[in-house]
Specification:
By secondary structure, this protein is α/β, with parallel strands linked by helices. It folds into two domains: about 45-195 and about 340-440, Metallo-dependent phosphatases (Purple Acid Phosphatase, chain A, domain 2, 4-Layer Sandwich); about 210-315, no CATH class. Helix content is about 30%, strand content about 15%. The protein has helices at about 5-25, 65-80, 110-120, 120-135, 150-155, 210-225, 245-265, 315-320, 330-335, 340-350, and strands at about 45-50, 80-90, 135-140, 160-165, 175, 180-185, 275, 285, 295, 305, 360-365, 370-375, 380-385, 405-410, 420-425, 430-440. The strands form four sheets. A seven-stranded mixed beta sheet has the order 4-3-2-1-14-15-16, with helices on one face. The protein has a five-stranded mixed beta sheet with strand order 5-6-11-13-12, with helices on one face. A two-stranded antiparallel sheet has the order 7-8. A hairpin with a 5-residue loop joins strand 12 (about 370-375) and strand 13. Helix 2 runs parallel beside helix 4 and helix 3 packs parallel to helix 5. The chain is globular and about 70 Å long.
Length: about 450
């Protein structure tokens, strides 16, 4: 009978344990530190957008993700390499308020933003700590949900923050000092439903710049608050005007967009019920869905609308007012209002393919769809577009969550390149979603 060799058994068992442990270690993903460039230089540019901080957590889109946002901001502050933090719009949410709620509660915008600061104290304290520390420049760029939030109102709750604004309220584009080839903006200026509109509704709300997307969002917030209910009413059918009039054709396209929106974001209320309480941006009345959606007396006849009367005819004026360099055809703008790809495409049209632009890196927010695209500019040079996603709790447009962008500028070295990286912080785990680099 053969004797059992204990030494051989022990050595073999040890090797099995070693290889098993090695396998486990190799299967464990390496921890990513997106805010460490491996040097002692402070040069990283971080971009966050679409945090949608609300004044009331009963309906705010960002509630569950607030602790994670606060944690990330503290990591940014602890970094020895982050030089700038850019907030690319929709930090403060004046739009996502259920239709029947008085946004300002009978007070004013200053009180409203202070309520946002109180409701989101941990996050706002983290931002303020970054500002006060002065190691990292914190810059705010307006978005559409904070379209009419003034510079003074932002300063009330984030004193000392840098603000990158156009002369016109509600817009801004930021290029970090020394990097004119980088453009960071929210992106809403290219969207028919969300770009500032100082031409419509001046008879009922003098001075207003709120586009139809404001009312769309008030209805969307009610849809969520009501628990995604079945429709309480139906829209009458509108058909193309048989006259072939171009303005009427455009208004029909506008109706089709509203028809989609109202059928997608169903509410319990009848459409003639006055439910949308305003008292913001010059509006004082309470409106019904039927005030917003184009209507028609007879099939094939005249199409009309109560609010935003003539909006289909003033798009070129809005483009000029909103400093859009390359014309966007109005029908394309209306039809693409609900398509994230249309706005992503405007990064190429307005910057990369624009012969008057030298920008080669563009960061937008707005769509809530994080995206990374590499293309060529009008000179045949490599260009990078990235969308910074969102921090709302439930992003139905994309499965990732809590996105951010990090730009690492090149150093004065012949082989150095500028790196752009898109990340997710879902479950508080940093995951690199995409990255690329180019030589500026």
């Amino acid at each position: 009978m053969k004797r059992f060799n204990y030494l051989t058994y022990f050595v073999g068992l040890s090797l099995l344990v070693f290889f098993a442990l090695t396998s486990c270690i190799n299967d464990t993903p390496a921890t990513i530190d997106p805010f460490n460039n491996g040097t002692s230089e402070r040069n990283l540019i971080v971009v966050l957008s679409d945090m949608h901080l609300g004044a009331d957590l009963a309906y705010a889109e960002c509630k569950d993700n607030l602790p994670s946002l606060e944690k990330l901001l503290k990591q940014i502050k602890a970094s020895a390499n982050v030089k700038e933090l850019v907030i690319a719009g929709d930090l403060l949410d004046e739009w996502f308020v259920p239709a029947p709620i008085d946004t300002y509660q009978g007070k004013d915008q200053a009180d409203f933003v202070q309520r946002i600061a109180t409701t989101n104290k941990g996050v706002m304290d983290a931002f303020q700590s970054l500002i006060d520390d002065e190691n990292i420049l914190v810059t705010y760029v307006p978005g559409n949900h904070d379209l009419t939030i003034t510079e003074a109102s932002v300063e009330i709750i984030l004193p000392g923050i840098n603000q990158a604004r156009d002369p016109e309220l509600g817009l801004g584009t930021y290029s970090p000092a020394g990097y004119p080839e980088i453009a960071i903006e929210h992106g809403h200026r290219y969207n028919f439903f969300c770009a500032p509109d100082p031409f419509s509704n001046q008879d009922v709300a003098p001075g207003t710049i709120s586009p139809p997307g404001y009312f769309f969002t008030r209805i969307a917030a009610l849809h969520v608050l009501q628990g995604f209910p079945p429709a309480g009413d139906t829209l009458p059918v509108v058909t193309p005007n048989t006259s072939g009039d171009e303005s009427q054709n455009l208004l029909y396209a506008y109706w089709k967009l509203w028809d989609w929106a109202i059928n997608y974001l169903k509410i319990e209320n009848s459409f003639d019920e006055k439910i949308i309480v305003t008292n913001v941006d010059g509006f004082t009345d309470t409106y019904a869905v039927n005030d917003l959606v184009p209507f028609q007396g007879t099939a094939g006849g005249l199409i009309d609308v109560h609010l935003y009367k003539g909006i289909q005819d003033t798009w070129n004026q809005r483009l000029a007012h909103n400093r859009v360099p390359v014309n966007i055809p109005v029908l394309q703008a209306i039809a693409g209002s609900d398509d994230a790809r249309e706005m992503d495409n405007q990064a190429k049209v307005q910057y990369f393919l624009n012969p008057d632009s030298d920008v080669r890196i563009v960061v937008f927010g707005h769509t809530h769809v994080p995206k990374f695209e590499v293309s060529d500019n009008h000179r045949g040079q490599k260009a990078i577009y990235v969308n910074s996603g969102t921090w709302i709790d439930h992003n139905t447009l994309d499965s990732t969550a809590m996105n951010f962008v990090v730009i690492t500028p090149q150093i004065p070295d012949a082989s150095s390149q500028t790196h752009v990286r898109l990340y997710s912080f879902k479950n508080e785990i940093v995951v690199e979603m995409a990255s690329d680099s180019l030589k500026l």
